[in-house]
Specification:
- It contains 23 helices and eight strands.
- It is mostly helical.
- It has six domains: 66 residues, no CATH class; 173 residues, Lysozyme, CATH 1.10.530.10; 66 residues, no CATH class; 48 residues, Membrane-bound Lytic Murein Transglycosylase D, Chain A, CATH 3.10.350.10; 68 residues, Membrane-bound Lytic Murein Transglycosylase D, Chain A (Roll); 54 residues, LysM domain (Membrane-bound Lytic Murein Transglycosylase D, Chain A, Roll), CATH 3.10.350.
- The strands form four sheets. It has a two-stranded antiparallel sheet with strand order 1-2. Strands 3-4 form a two-stranded antiparallel ribbon. A two-stranded antiparallel sheet has the order 5-6.
- α5 crosses α13 and α7 packs parallel to α10.
- The longest helix is centred in the middle third of the chain and has 18 residues.
- The chain is globular.
Length: 542
Amino acid sequence: MKNLRNITFILLISYLTGCTQVTSQLETERPDASATLLPAPPASLMLGIEANPDCEVDGKTLAQFAPHNHHNLWDRLRAGYRLQPVSNERVQMHLDWYARNPGYMKRVSKRATRYLHYIVSELEQRQLPLELALLPIVESAFDPFAYSHGRASGMWQFIPATGRQYGLVQNWWYDGRRDVEASTRAAMDFLTDLHRRFDGDWLLALAAYNTGEGNVRKAIRRNQRRGKATDFWALKLPRETRAYVPQLLALATLVGDPEKYQLQLAEIPDTPYFTRVAVNSQIDLAQAAELAGIDIDELYLLNPGYNRWATDPKGSHHLLLPVARAADFSARLQDLPQDQRIGWERYIVKSGDSLLIVARHFNTSVDSLKKVNNLKGNTIRIGQPLLIPVATQPAKHYAFSAEQRQRRKQARSRGGEGTARVSYRVRPGDSFWKIARAHNIEVKDIARWNGMSPRDLLHPGQELVLWTRAGREAQRPPAALHGNPVIRKVAYRVRRGDSLARIAGKFNLTVNDILNWNALNKNKYIHPGQSLTLFVDVTRVN
């Protein structure tokens, strides 16, 4: 490293004292260099060397030569800007919105703290514009569990097909579209491919990332037939895409000069937040969090690709952990035998059982049952013993902080005079309205007692607190196990050929769910273009 700095030092001196030849070489090697020229710093301030007064130092070139010594990651990001700034009303509209809502960027920048260093480093390694590190703000507000009505998932919002095309595995245990490292690499591969296909035009590449390459090419051909320009700003694209690129450019402008817009960004140290640690087997996430000495919520936020209570038994067997906790975790893991990294339970097959029923009951997968019990087919018989991989902690332990806050809210809730607290377990097809009517209480009260919104999803097996005058515990259905859901509200627009049953099947819902959430009459048809509100567990859809 010391030798590298010495070489950089010599090159910088050579450039400042006689830059004509060096500049020519750099321009040949980097034909896309188009950053604004900045005046060269006085030679007296740069090592006391007299520079050529007719030679100016390109700010981006200087940043490439100078050793990186950024204490704040935002400074490093700004030094890697390569997109041409654009000033027009479409960009200005987003600038104005961010200026009016400073709290939004403050929250998003805090959320980005876990992920941004990795993204910036990957972009630099590929020599891509560092403005692209801001794209997850546009896509998901840096929420790795974000989910859209178009079935796009994760921080970079991959739909299932494109995710598989770029190597993102999606199964019951794991969804690579939400994996921090895998989805970031896939997004950069995808963006690089689009950049090449659109002849080096980043704005067209970004538009294609949002709406699809085919839609952008159709818009280009339409303008060509009419003799119009074919740059991004001239194309007739979907409304979302027309806003998508200006939003990224507005973000780049804001981050480039936050003080100008009175914007406060959470400071992010220019050091890695996490590191990858090999586990070499399936592991219960509760055990992993305990070994690492971190909260399980933090473990899920660093490893959002894992859908369930444990890592994927098929691998790959690794975890992302805070850098400061990785060494302790690895040392403690060595003392934990592989057969003790998840829990085990012995189960005797009963009449009416199937592998699917048993798997659902124990919150595991059919494939795991078959592998553990050396089963070649799906047939099981009454009285047959099965070894079941199970979580070491109750299902509620594998919840995110939002659910923990909800439980605290429930514990603090109070009803009116003469009421008593009862527990209610949500049944399939339940809604706030149905529960309120059955117990003669108000929807808004149920929501308030449980720290929820009346439009939030209720899922079977969920525990609610009710304060009723009857004071009796609400009747419960047979115990229903549920995993660690990640619920997202989805605005779904009905397509030609859709039916309620088809939509329910696509999102792992019931027809009654959709009817209740949208106050629909089951005897009436839905029609193309109609908007439906869905509440989807993103860990249960592909």
